[in-house]
Design goal:
Elements: H1 5-15, H2 19-28, H3 33-42, H4 47-52, E1 58-66, E2 71-79, H5 82-85, H6 88-104, H7 116-132, H8 140-155, E3 161-162, E4 165-169, H9 170-181, E5 186-194, H10 197-200
Antiparallel strand pairs: 1-2, 2-5, 3-4
């Protein structure tokens, strides 16, 4: 797959890595931005990766209420210093994450937060559904993996498409913000409430 100049520029802006290394990573990852970032991190090149090892204990608890109080969100976003925690860029990022949680209704921050039993349950549902649809037996594992991937894209905050720009994920927005601010940023946790949701269950 041909890698565009725009993709290289984007990866360079997010990681601070040289043009040739960015091109190589994108080519190896077949144009997948997140995979390219991971490749650069594995090589120890990406600044965002270097910053990811640094402790982030400062930050903000962002509160957001949507639809005249029908949805409420609380998000903890951490950074390394109080100075950055008070900066406009960091506050704006925390607010965007709260908006994302309100609109996207994720269940987990990152993929590794999904309990094994939840994945197993989703796998069983996807398998039964594929069997009921009469899909060929040899294709079922691939279909199941595709449906599990779709489930993760909806359920995991970092895998969701960013509500203001669906061409990027929340993970990519996070990398870009780390590169811009120059400190490690961690979306620690969130809680989302919707009016009447406990009544429906």
């Amino acid at each position: 797959m041909a890698v565009t100049i725009e993709q290289i520029k984007e990866l360079r802006a997010a990681t601070g890595v040289g043009i040739l290394d960015c091109r190589k990573a994108l080519e190896t990852a077949n144009g997948d931005f997140d995979k390219a970032v991971d490749l650069l991190r594995q090589k120890g090149l990406a600044k965002a990766a270097k910053r990811a090892d640094r402790e982030a204990a400062e930050g903000v608890i962002e509160l957001y209420s949507h639809g005249n109080g029908r949805v409420g969100v609380m998000v903890e976003v951490n950074c390394e210093t109080d100075f950055v925690a008070r900066s406009e860029d960091f506050r704006k990022f925390a607010h965007e994450i709260a908006l994302q949680v309100a609109a996207g209704a994720p269940q987990f921050v990152r993929e590794e937060d999904i309990p094994a039993e939840v994945l197993e349950h989703e796998r069983e549902i996807a398998t039964k559904r594929a069997q009921e649809e009469g899909k060929p037996e040899k294709l079922i594992p691939k279909i199941v993996e595709g449906r599990l991937s779709s489930f993760k894209n909806e359920a995991v905050l970092l895998r969701q498409k960013y509500i203001r720009d669906e061409s990027i994920t929340v993970q990519k927005l996070l990398h870009e913000t780390i590169a811009k601010i120059g400190e490690n940023i961690v979306i620690r946790r969130f809680a989302r409430w919707e009016l009447g949701e406990s009544i429906k269950k």
